[in-house]
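Ticket #4471: structure export looks truncated?
Reporter: QA, pipeline team
Priority: medium

Steps to reproduce: submit the single chain below to the structure queue and open the exported record.
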Amino acid sequence: MLRRRKLLCEMDLERASREELVEIIRGLLARLEGLEARVAELEAENLRLRRGGGSQTELCIKASRPPREEKKERKHRAQAFVRRREKADEVRYHRLERCPDCGAKLSGEGWEHRRHQVIELEIKRRVVDHVVMARRCGVCGKRALPKLEDKETGAVGKRRFGASIQSLVTVLNVAGRLPIRMIRRMLRETCGLHLSNGSVVKLLDGVRTAAEPTVRELREQVRASSSVCADACPARGDGMARKRRQWLSVDLLDSDRALL
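Actual output as written to the record:
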């Protein structure tokens, strides 16, 4: 083998005779056969090791990452579920007067780069003066005055606070479980409305008075029902009837609170 390599290195192939070239080719073919045999031997050894050193079961080789699936085309929805922009009550434009890099003065209106919508809550009180205008009749000469109803003014009687304030106070007290002092502080800080403890109590009493007919009607319907105070077991009639009356009173109290 060394002699053949030396022959390939030292011999000028262009000057070699036919017999010498044939000998070189035969040597290369023999070497190629040996290399192929070695490759086959190594492949067999690799397969034997992958099968567990001669066992029939193959080794469980877990991949470091899951196989990559082909990316499917995204299915377009028939309807887009995105947050829609609301109608803006005010639009504010933000521009730079000078370039932040060189300091040169910028001119022109520019173009819209992006839009960010912010929703704000503005709570303020509104004072309405209801003026009663008097007219005189040209026939009889009497003065004619309109009679203001509670529905027209939005307030009960001569109270200063309308139905919107009355409903807000009721919701805060009944649904929100806020005490009177906290309601007064909340209205003062948010709306600039100053109420006394007596004013808040009168507003709540007005709602209770307005809801009395509805509560009375509901009570009559409950009492007229055939399932009220009905006892399935005669042996427990007195005790169960007493408990049912207690439950009924609690339910009626809850209904009163819900209406308020």
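Status: closed, not a bug. The export was complete when the record was re-opened. Leaving a note from the reviewer for reference: Residues 26 and 51 are 38 Å apart (CA to CA).
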